[in-house]
Amino acid sequence: MTDRELIMQLSDAMGVSGEEGPVRDLIWSYVRASVDEAFTDTMGNLYVSRREGRKGPVLMVSAHMDEVGLMIHHIESDGLLRFSAVGGLDPRILPGRAVVVGPKQIPGVIGAPPIHLSSPGERKKALPMDDLYIDIGADDRAEAEKLVKPGDRAVFATKSEPFGDGLLKGKALDNRVGCALLVRTMAMDCPFPVTGVFTVQEEIGLRGARVAAYRVEPAMALILEGTTCADTPGTEDHEQSTRLGDGPAITFMDGSVIPNRVMVEALIEAAERAGVPWQWKRTTFGGTDGGAVHKVREGVPTAVLSVPCRYIHGPAAVMSLSDFDAARRTVAEFLAHVDGVWARIMEERGMHP
Amino acid sequence: MTTATEHPRREALVQLIRELTAVPGPSGHEQSVRARLQELVAPYADEVRVDPLGNLIVTGRSRKGEGGGPQSRRIMLAAHMDEIGVIAIHIDDDGFVRIRPIGGVSPTMLLAQRVRFTNGTVGVVGSEPVEKPGDLTFEKLFVDIGAASKEEAQARIRIGDAASLCHRVEEAGSHRLIGKGLDDRSGCAVLVQTLRELADNPSPHAVYFVFTVQEEVGLRGAGPAAYGIEPDFALAVDVTATGDYPKAKTLDVGLGKGVAIKVQDRSVIAHRGVRELLVETAEAAGIPYQLEILPFGGTDAGAIHLTRAGVPSGVVSLPTRYLHTPGEMVDVRDLDAAVSLLLEVLRQDVIELGEP
């Protein structure tokens, strides 16, 4: 399977935080051939390991499976569905969107008054989420209840597709692009044992990664992400987070973690050895699973590598396959020399492994 | 300042603070501070180690042959090495460096200040023109490191390099110091001095002096350190705000009125037993103290007390005016009292904590 097909299939799967099952099943079908051990914990984190023929401290590589979305919390008597956000969703982008609801993938649309029926004043304001509803075409509550129930999740109905010059759009590139990268990672050579963790519930507060890191007890952790990209008109140079096509982004600080300096340097060296471009992630807000992982037990040296994605947490994010390819090569180089990285970390601590 | 012969401990504390604040150590970039502390503590410690996040964990001298008895406690003392600062996020075509805050930094405070990057590069903070002070945001600020071009700037610093304020400590009046980074190098100085004095007459307990990382960005270092140590109880030693300047918010903590014993802040409610141990010890030894109830802010105790199955935790606070500015002010007599209090606690043969 090509990288493009892999990312597209993963992006189209439905896996709002807390309901990651379909994504987990899909990932398992891809990785089962390349791993020695696998395990799913009570929260739904999927652990896959490669230990055979490898010695040394464990490297944990993780990517979150969940995506932002909506949760149905009430069915009105007229069959319309009231919902709330799961994760960070901007209410301004919701009205008029096509969505699919629940495990039966019922098609729906987020209802809002059309332009003809709203006053100019109303059109200047974003509708709050409480005023919106999903219309699944049901006549009344009884008919709607046959199709959906409170607690069901909904996602944008976007099907991923390639476009432009090597670009891809999809609803859940944050973070199926990281999942795709981790699928590829499990097939890579590494002197140390590697445990890949596909985590749950990142979008609602880095919840799965924390317990995963506790279980794995890794010596180092590498977090794979799809990150914000702001290279669009009107954004000044120093306010741009990342730029599409400039290679994977390396984090020096975000709102949740200050990555280990040795690992950051090692990622840069890996990209340069691989002969691919890389860039800094230049904003310092937001968080990733790294924020939870680095504080687990006695602490874990952690780094974050991201593929830039425009318009994340919206109906269609956009990424570049060349960035994915550069990220993949960077991770491969990093893994191949991870023993040297570990030696440098221990040396900085005044210890001799 | 009082002479060394009159107050050798106060003189030592001032000297420690001078040395420790001279080294930049914004959160996540504490290595220079850690290296200096390692030199300072080495002669007085049984063991020194650095944990995975960079916390410096120093085991104090134990009483030979007596430590480790059934009465012995594992006690963690924590002061954070890191300070607020800025991080370089972009270098423009003319060599100006764009920055973002590390920890609680006000852009208004930062304007026109000098900063020093951890590699020694010095610059001054400038701003794009703004109409009114309220428009001053980090997006408008930059650091001018005296570079004439992007290339020259890139040769001297890199994206991701961090800087802190770089003012030297000044003595003000007989007892007070003004400087940057007193939050929490004052606490580090108190721990080093306590370790030194304890070496002559060791504690019957296992005492871990921990210099933590990344407190200013959310108490990130202290929890993992406590996880590794598994202490019976813990004391954070950190600065606290005061309410003793013109029209300050009501806060019954003042400079020069003794060490402050925390009741609570936004991150922790001090364990009653630990708090009472501190209060009773101060009363018995005649050490000046004040009780502190801080309606904002947090300390490493906030992370430590939630580690593993929970750690009874308290805070020995050092009253400080004008926090997170280049003009932080402490009173050395309060720091002196903090050392006395810690020594009196650590030298008790039997420590029984009361109910929470």
- SS element count, helices of chain B: 9
Biggest sheet strand line-up of chain A: 1-2-12-3-13-16-14-15
Largest sheet of chain B: 8 strands, mixed
Radius of gyration of chain A: 21 Å
Quaternary structure annotation: heterodimer
Give the structural class of chain B.
alpha+beta
**What's the number of extended β-strand segments of chain A?**
17
How far apart the termini of chain A lie comes to 40 Å
* Shape field of chain A: globular
The percent of residues in helical segments of chain B reads 25-40%
Kindly state the mean pLDDT of chain B as a whole number? 95
Walk me through the structure.
The complex is a heterodimer of chains A (353) and B (356). Chain A has 353 residues and is of the alpha+beta class. Chain A has ten helices and 17 strands. Chain A has helices spanning 3-12, 21-31, 120-123, 141-147, 173-185, 207-216, 261-274, 289-293, 321-336, 338-348; strands at 37-40, 46-50, 59-64, 69-75, 81-86, 98-101, 106-111, 133-135, 153-156, 161-163, 167-170, 194-199, 220-228, 249-251, 279-281, 302-309, 317-320. Chain A is globular and about 70 Å long. Chain B is globular. Chain B has nine helices and 17 strands. The N and C termini of chain B lie far apart (41 Å). Chains A and B meet through loops of A and strand 4, strand 5 and helix 6 of B.
SSE map:
The complex is a heterodimer of chains A (353) and B (356).
Chain A: H1 3-12, H2 21-31, E1 37-40, E2 46-50, E3 59-64, E4 69-75, E5 81-86, E6 98-101, E7 106-111, H3 120-123, E8 133-135, H4 141-147, E9 153-156, E10 161-163, E11 167-170, H5 173-185, E12 194-199, H6 207-216, E13 220-228, E14 249-251, H7 261-274, E15 279-281, H8 289-293, E16 302-309, E17 317-320, H9 321-336, H10 338-348
Parallel strand pairs in A: 3-12, 3-13, 13-16, 14-15
Antiparallel strand pairs in A: 1-2, 2-12, 4-5, 4-9, 6-7, 6-9, 7-8, 10-11, 11-17, 14-16
Chain B: H1 8-21, H2 31-41, E1 45-50, E2 56-60, E3 74-80, E4 85-91, E5 97-102, H3 107-110, E6 114-117, E7 122-127, E8 141-144, H4 150-156, E9 162-165, E10 170-172, E11 176-179, H5 182-200, E12 206-212, H6 222-229, E13 233-240, E14 259-264, H7 272-285, E15 289-293, H8 301-304, E16 313-319, E17 328-331, H9 332-346
Parallel strand pairs in B: 3-12, 3-13, 13-16, 14-15
Antiparallel strand pairs in B: 1-2, 2-12, 4-5, 4-9, 5-8, 6-7, 6-9, 7-8, 10-11, 11-17, 14-16
